[in-house]
Amino acid sequence: MTVSTDTTVVSAALSALATVRDPELDEPITTLGFVASCVVSCEGRAVVRLRLPTYFCAPNFAFLMVADAYDAVTAVQGVRSAEVILEDHFASDAINAGVAAQAGFVQSFDGEAVAELGDLRAQFLRKAVMAGTDQVCRPLVAAGVTPAELLVLTLGAVPASPELLRLRERRAELGLAAGDDAPLLIDPGTGARIDEAAVPLHLRKARVTRAGIEANTSICSGMFRVRYPDG
Amino acid sequence: MYEKDGEKYFIVDSHMHYWNAAPSNWVKGAEQYAKGWIECFHAYQSLGPQETHWPIEKFMGYTEDDLMKDVFEDGYVDIAVFQPTYLKEWYAEGFNTTERNAALGEKHPGMFIANTRFDPRDGDVGLEELRRNVERYGSKGVKLYTAEWNNGSRGYKLSDPAAYRYLEKAQELGIKNIHVHKGPTIWPLDKDAFDVSDVDHAATDFPELNFIVEHVGLPRIEDFCFMATQEPNVYAGLSVVIGGLMHARPKFFARVMGELLFWVGEDKMTFGSDYGIWEPKWQIEGFVDWDYPSDEFSDFPRVTTATKKKILGLNAARLYDIKVPAEYQLPVVPSAREAEESAQLVTES
Q1: Which of A4, A100, A130, A140 could form a disulfide with A40 if both were Cys (CB 3.0 to 4.6 A apart)?
Q2: How many angstroms separate the CA atoms of A129 and A125, rounded?
Q3: B56 touches chain A (CB under 8 A)
């Protein structure tokens, strides 16, 4: 449901929400169906309702999505104030109140959390980089590119693809080299090049990381469809 | 037992439940959690074939007759291992306790193994309860649910000193198998609560215990795989993998199985139906028929009849010292070293 007298503001708000990702699944919350509604009143007050696959989805990832959605919608031209409401979740109250007050995670879960969620986000970005490495490398390997050749390949030398663009974006978010001259194979923790002997293991790790994220996504979307069959 | 194409499979369901989640068992003031929990479980069931779905009313409190029919009569299972989960903050008499499971088991001798559980936050009282349960029910395994809420705490880690104290006691009492569940866990809140590194620490420090990571650490298969390849006493419990993926997402199922066979290996993977979430029948039939769907999987380890026999029962039978009749055993093939040794003996004589 999207209601506004000004449809351009609503579509701008939805575009902004499309930049918010589930940090664990590395997919936009809009394509995952997590945005239940986005409404902007004539006065520029935006109300966004979010929903998740289960009542017990991890509260830290849920908090990040609600907070990111708040930031994204607030930045839209024509939006004067925003409210983001997470529905049907055991920690809805703490998360909604915390984000509304821009209180941060530690304050929102007083006594239960000691750190903000930057490290957690980075940890999952590193997984996204590994999964992206598999997405980019697997077609190359299938086409006969050897490990030794992969080792010297730069991002600029890989044929353009949505997967390559995504890999570059995730690397850039982590502050890792993402330009044309940057090596394709790096350790997402340190940014260091991979040793030649370690290439096969690196590719295996990239493959299992991608399998894990994609299996997780498939279970989450299956659960989501049961919970919100009309969504 | 299950028979297909002349092959006989001994079936150990190493992870199943007999729970009571009916509203009459919900703790006053915590109804939303009790309801949220069982509805979440019920949604998992929908990932299985449609004809095996139950209405929520049955799902909240299936009967002894349902269980005996679904698991043994229709479900091919020879021995089923009860894995208790207490959740007493939400379910007044517990979700499925050692006592509830064992009471059913005692009515059907030889069909069940009653595992117990512990919670390291329960102090000396909990240690004493563990001792009593092991003595009374002969438990050889425990199910640990690290995300359980307990007096304001939202969870614990297996590497906590208190957990080590319990693991030491469990080992002393004769427990061999530690089934760890990283479920829909939420603690520690500011970290990845599904992280399995605490299992890694415990497995290193307790080499004589086996650690069966249920649901293969889902949603963190990659972390689990990296760990399991380094720890000889870490096993992959396949509950949820078969139930949640084989029917609903066959391609992802193939990829996850391929990864597990590569990193963990067919000798360290165990079948668990996760009943009452999913009935074992379709899982066993489907798994015996299963193979990789395409050439895309050619660089994963092959899946043979022996692989399936091990996963469906022989591996868990080894963990629980279950005597498997000869007709279900794999033909004994001497290892290369044994063959060499016997060849040497022949030469020497």
Answers
A1: A4
A2: 6
A3: no
- The answer on A45 and A111 residing in a single domain is yes
Question: What is the rounded average pLDDT of the residues B212-221?
Answer: 91
The string of pLDDT tens digits covering residues A37-63 is 999 999 999 999 999 999 989 999 999
Domain enclosing residue A139, as ranges: 119-221
Q: Which residue has the higher pLDDT, B223 or B189?
A: B223
A100 and A133 in one domain? no
* Residue A108 shares a structural domain with residue A165: no
Residues 6+ apart with CB under 8 A from B19: B61, B85, B95, B96, B276
Q: With an 8 Å Cβ cutoff, are B190 and A207 in contact?
A: no
Q: What is the ipTM of this complex?
A: 0.91
Taking the model in full, what pTM does it have?
A: 0.92
Q: CA geometry: angle at A90 spanning A211 and B196, to 5°? A: 35
Q: How far apart are CA B225 and CA B236, in angstroms?
A: 9
CATH code of A25's domain: 3.30.300.130
On whether both A110 and A126 belong to a single domain, the answer is no
Beta bridge partners of B255: none
Angle, helices B250-263 vs B221-228, to 10°: value is 20
Nearest CA-CA partner of B284 in B63, B74, B46, B108: B74
CA angle at B93 for the pair B280 and B211, rounded to the nearest 5°: 50
C-alpha span between B159 and A72 (Å, rounded)? 39
Nearest alpha carbon to residue A12 among A43, A40, A37, A47: A40
Give the position of tokens 């991002």.
A155
> What pLDDT, in 10s, does the model give residues B87-113?
999 999 999 999 999 999 999 999 999
Q: Residue B150: what are its φ and ψ, rounded to 5°?
A: -150, 105
Tokens, residue B251: 């391609």
Distance CA A78, CA A59 (A): 30
**Closest chain A residue to the Cα of B253, Cα to Cα:** A215
Reported as type and span, the H/E element at residue B205 is helix B197-205
Q: Are the beta carbons of A215 and B245 separated by less than 8 Å?
A: yes
Give the pLDDT score at A29: 98
